[in-house]
Amino acid sequence: MTTRRFSDEDSNDPNEPYENMPGREEPPQSVSTPGVRMPNTSIPRERPADPSPLRDRDTNTMSSARGAAHLPRTLTQVLSEANDRVVRGDLVDFVPMPTGFDPLDGLIGGGLRKTELVLLGGAQGVGKTIATLQIARNIAARPDQYVFYLSYEHTETHLMHRLLCLESVNPPEVDITRGIKLQDLYKIIVAQRARGFMGGKEETLGSLQAILKDNPKTAPALQRLQRYSDRMILLKASPAVTTLRSIKEMTSRLCEATGGNVVLFVDYLQKIAVHPERPRDENDKVTIIVEGLKDIAMTLDIPVWAIVAADREGLKSKRIHLFHMRGSSALDYESDIALIMNNKYQIMAKDHVNFNPYTAKQFRDWVVFTIEKNRAGRAMLDMEFQLHGPHFAFDPRGQKVQQQLIDDKIIET
User: Fold this and answer.
1) Interatomic CA distance for residues 402 and 384, integer angstroms
2) How many angstroms separate the most distant Cα atoms in the chain?
3) Contact 36, 232 (CB under 8 A)
4) Please, what are the averages of pLDDT over each run of 10 residues along the chain (413 residues)?
5) Which of 247, 244, 294, 248 is nearest to 116 (CA)?
6) Across-strand partners of 341?
7) Residues 6+ apart with CB under 8 A from 351
8) DSSP characters for 42-73?
9) Which residue in 40, 56, 298, 342 is a FRET match for 181, CA 20 to 30 A apart?
10) Adjacent-strand bridge partners of 273
């Protein structure tokens, strides 16, 4: 059986009748998904009627620029277009977007760059979603920069609750004394509502925002979250209907509404629905998905960050690597940067002369980020960050790993 690959041809006509899509088993997810604040871009040539929270953009210029990217051009034309952008002061192609994690940014060339696909892998519970959501928050906190965060694992409300806990410790300050946990947040909300019911006055019940604003523990977190809340678009994706086509269509409309200042985050890659393609096996499915995400990064001229899951054999290994990810060959080939997370305590070399089992326990809350692929720089570099799991936050002030780790790759320089 021939496998159809995700291509531009699949997504050129979003109005193609459902019944005309061969092999279609599930309808594509609507762009106007309930609960998601999508900008009004149904008519690309017109600006949104309400420019808030998005500023007015010249969508004609964006559409023509992306269309030209699919046409053959001489090197002289490419040079001329690049020159025009620099003259206009458009330097986005030369300035990366920092993730806010140091020294990670320094080792990958300053941060995320347009057209690049970044993959983040690791075992369950190591903090992949925590790191990804925190990086998305760091990027959305920049003026005029938007984030499109698709989660196949959590609802938009749960992600908001996580962000409130993260903002309570305020990375990179990371003041744990002021931090709130998810259970604390729920107790504050429930207790305030209960007091209102007991008082018998409807007006004292209060809204969620009023409860968070009035409580001294949650008020600072809410204030920090609201600084970027209009620039972070969340979607509870469905593993049945949120296809590559629908992801590309939604992201394209966001690009048109924001002047292309969008970073796409996917949590996680292997759960993306593949229709109408009929992959032969898991590896074939992952190949279709990763090629589709790379296509989105290239054609829409945006960075794409995706979480990837390890296979069963990888979960059994002492230290997880990129080749332990499901569909690893395609992931390795298509990605520009691949990061693998491991718990530091579990991968420390126990036979090392300096290993002390008593002092080593302090590293249980530290996670090692390994750059296993870096198309534009050095790979197999290890750095560590402290995880504050109850607050869904990393301390972004990391450092290079000093201790000996198991399964080290020695690179001669």
Assistant:
1) 9
2) 75
3) no
4) 45 42 43 44 38 44 52 86 80 83 94 96 94 98 95 96 97 93 93 66 69 93 96 95 95 95 95 87 91 96 95 82 85 94 88 60 90 92 96 96 73 38
5) 294
6) 122, 369
7) none
8) SSTTS--SS-SSSPP--HHHHHHHHHHTTS--
9) 342
10) 243
